[in-house]
Design brief:
Number of helices: 5
CATH topology of the largest domain: Arc Repressor Mutant, subunit A
Largest sheet: 2 strands, antiparallel
Structural class: mainly alpha
CATH class of the largest domain: Mainly Alpha
Oligomer: single chain
Order of helices and strands: HHHEEHH
Shape: elongated
Distance between the termini: 34 Å
Strand order of the largest sheet: 1-2
């Protein structure tokens, strides 16, 4: 599992780990019941604190993406299609919000943005 940490990002490191692991799961690059690197191994590989990795794993477990079995490790949780659909939906929503902000920065009105959106919908 290859993760990239951006130390100059405003996003906390544990959130970067969470987002990247979620992405790997949603895209199917990490399969159901696949074991994740141990907290110590991942912290050593990324050259960060084990507490940061533990926080990321705890967050992923709270959201239902992984399961941790004491003494055995952390595993990708069985696929929950509703959870995966909601995660994909959040990603699309974020992308749309970013596009709207860019349009407004360029001076586009809401109507201009709606017309462009409808045009693109018709073409795809």
């Amino acid at each position: 599992m290859k993760l990239m940490i951006n130390n100059s990002s405003m996003q906390p490191i544990y959130e970067q780990i969470v987002e990247q692991i979620k992405g790997l799961i949603v895209r199917g690059e990490l399969k159901e019941e696949e074991i994740l690197p141990s907290v110590r191994t991942l912290s050593r590989d990324l050259k960060i604190s084990a507490l940061t990795v533990k926080k990321a794993y705890d967050h992923l477990e709270e959201e239902g993406f992984i399961i941790t079995v004491h003494g055995k490790g952390s595993f990708v949780a069985p696929a929950n299609q509703d959870l995966l659909l909601e995660e994909n939906r959040k990603q699309v929503e974020t992308d749309l919000e970013m596009a709207i902000r860019k349009g407004r920065i360029c001076g586009m009105t809401n109507q201009d943005i709606k017309e462009l959106f409808e045009l693109i919908l018709e073409e795809t």
